[in-house]
Amino acid sequence: MNGYLADVAALARKDLQLELRARDTLPAMLLFVLATLVVFHFALPASAGDEPAYGLLWVALVFTALLGLSRAWAPETAAGALDGLVLAPADRSAIWLGKTIATLAFLAAAEIVALPAFALLFAPLDGAALAGVALASLGLCAVGTLVSAMAAAARGREVILPLLFLPLAIPLVVGGVGAGISEEPGRFLAFLGLYDAVFAILSWAAFEYVVTE
Amino acid sequence: MSIPRPSPTLLAFATAAIAGLSVAMIFFVAPVDSDQGLSQKIFYVHVPIALTAYAGFGLGAWKALRLLMTRDERYDLESYTAVHQGTIFGVLTLVTGAIWAKASWGVWWTWSSNQLVLFLVLFLFYCAYFMLRFSIEPGARRERISAVYALFGVALIPVSFLAIRLASDFIHPTVFTREGPQMTGEMFASFCVSWLAITLVGYVMYRAELAGKRTDANLRELREALAR
Amino acid sequence: MALLGQAAATIRVEALEKRYGARTVLRDLSFDVPAGATLVVTGPNGSGKTTLLRLLVGLAAPTRGSVAVAVDRSRLGFVGHESLLYTELTALENLDLYGRLYRVRERRERIGMLLERYGLWDARNDRVTSYSRGMTQRLALCRALLHDPALLVLDEPHASLDADGVGLLEQELAAGREGRTVVVATHDPGRLDALTTQRLLLGAR
Lengths: 213, 228, 205
Known about the structure:
Chain A is mainly alpha-helical.
């Protein structure tokens, strides 16, 4: 177990190192989410209340996550490093976990900027809404990392990733928006927890089969 | 584990017979609905089609699991064909659902039908299955990735349904009733026969498509062997 | 990739067939490689050399037949067509990551020694993108040797190596004879004549 966590840590650290070095994914995500929020201001009619704004926040978050996910496996596909990781004695699920943690870190960084901006420009966010964002982000990254690896094995990977990711993201959007605007956020938060549990375990177990023959 | 498989011809005849019986029952045995009239009868077709779609997705996921467990490439074709049939029936679900909605409420689409919304999400998901499959080179990698995706689909079905249930509470509070509270004996009988018929049709189509694809694969192998 | 116990052969391949859809790349291949041997695999382009090597290390799985290797992943070294490196990390960072994943003992010392031996010490803090092709291949070799593999599989190593690198590789292969089995796919088998104990020629399709 100790070795497993050490592997995960080494892999996640590698991704953070790479991002700090190249600095191309995170700034893009930050700018994208801010720009999207501004577009939404113009896209919403003046009479719209808070609720449509929450919906659009989630659209922004999902597409920002998608942006990060489309770059997630780029370092591994550049010179075949994914083969190098698969060959290593480490458990293949550790590769998934390390990458998910790193992707989550980037998404969280983008959210730390986006959420205050949203609260400032549109509507306040309460604890339940924030909890919803946190839980849904977990799910987005867990499932997204796996699905992104699938796309990396395909031709036209930039195009296919959204097709694979969006249907899986729909329940998370429901949960997140619900947590934000419903009078009973508890149900939606519980649902998000369920999604996370189911799909994280599924992704963790299935990753091996996605990267090996 | 081998289930005895009925001969295709026998199966096709049996299916045709039961389908005929089903049509007869739908029109002559089942009562005409007082509210919706004749159009309510689509229910006898719409729901079984939806159930058959679920069966297709479920079978596809099962075969996918078998593939991952045994590495036997036979299961890849079976999984793909099952998912394919499931998708076809899924599209039919949306179509019959739309027809029914139009006939009952005058709209081609409604977000308040949880079943329809679920099928819309699944339709998107499984269309992506085919796009994914056809953008990966044939081989073990494609088989495994397709299998994992098919398994995710089956996990998505209940989760999505839950999500849609939750969402419908606050997003679309309109109330539409579909059919009467309980089914009478004749309705139930007609429903069951129809369900059996449509499931058989689905299964026959599955077997037919699988046989066709297997023949194609064998032909390709033969050609390749001859070319050597 | 099945593991053999105390069998005499490090590698046992039986009736191996590899197919990608309709395309059969390897057909009915059988051979054994005893421990300590150096197998040289030759054949024209498209004969499946790369596929065979990937099957041996476990990056691909057989369609039919079996590949049994008595060495597990932690003692396997592979140099493929690609460098398997992170191009935006430095040589040190790349080797440190792999050193951790392979649980290499005295990681820092071993990395230093390898970089020194392969003439990359001065460039150790430079990103791999800035390396020449020869340097990259030398680093790939370091990566493969880091954990002192019992089975070393090299796919056309001479192709990207510069003159220095070739010399170093030959030194390495000669020096590591005891306890190490080597499989090399190459277009230029003559270079390895002195070391070769076994040859395999893959036919053209």
